[in-house]
Amino acid sequence: MAMFRSLVASAHQRQPAAGPAGGDNGLEAQFSCPICLEVYHRPVAIGSCGHTFCGECLQPCLQVPSPLCPLCRLPFDPKKVDKATHVEKQLSSYKAPCRGCNKKVALAKMRVHASSCVKVQEQMANCPKFVPVVPTSQPIPSNIPNRSTFTCPYCGARNLDQQELVKHCVENHRSDPNRVVCPICSAMPWGDPSYKSANFLQHLLHRHKFSYDTFVDYSIDEEAALQAALALSLSEN
């Protein structure tokens, strides 16, 4: 495991590069946060792996007991996350064309410019609506863009996002012995819609733990409650 982590760390070089790569057209992408995909806003860097994110985007990761880097998945010390001053300087130094009006704007001001650029707003208004990656019987929520929902495999409760599905199953089905198909996995291109998990609750809390406790802002007390409920269900069975 230590060797694997060493290889991963060496493969992901500290970012971003010292100078612009790919010309002006590649600057915005080069200085974009891997989480929100927008130009960095108040960037911070993880000390151990060097990966950079918007300070606000990384906040949910810092709320969990054992945080992992959202990009390389290596564990890190939340006390060793520092302000990426070198990136802030580059954001002020470099200019890139607006993706709407093509006007050259300092990267540090790109977000503000894009929010008032008529052409950018037109592009956003014309973005295609959410479409599932594979055919699904789930209704597409009209009032919440880009939100995937699932049906409980035990009782058929509908329109549960991933966090709601975990809580629903722990609270209502922790003693259910039935083997069921994971609706999250089966919705993926690689998913097997016929594979039934022997312990679905344990599968939810481990296989889908990354997006549940890293990108969803919830309290540590809720995590402890879920783990306690799972342990209780295992002991009862």
Automatic annotation (TrEMBL):
It comes from the Eukaryota. This is E3 ubiquitin-protein ligase RNF166 isoform X1. It comes from Echinops telfairi. The gene is RNF166.
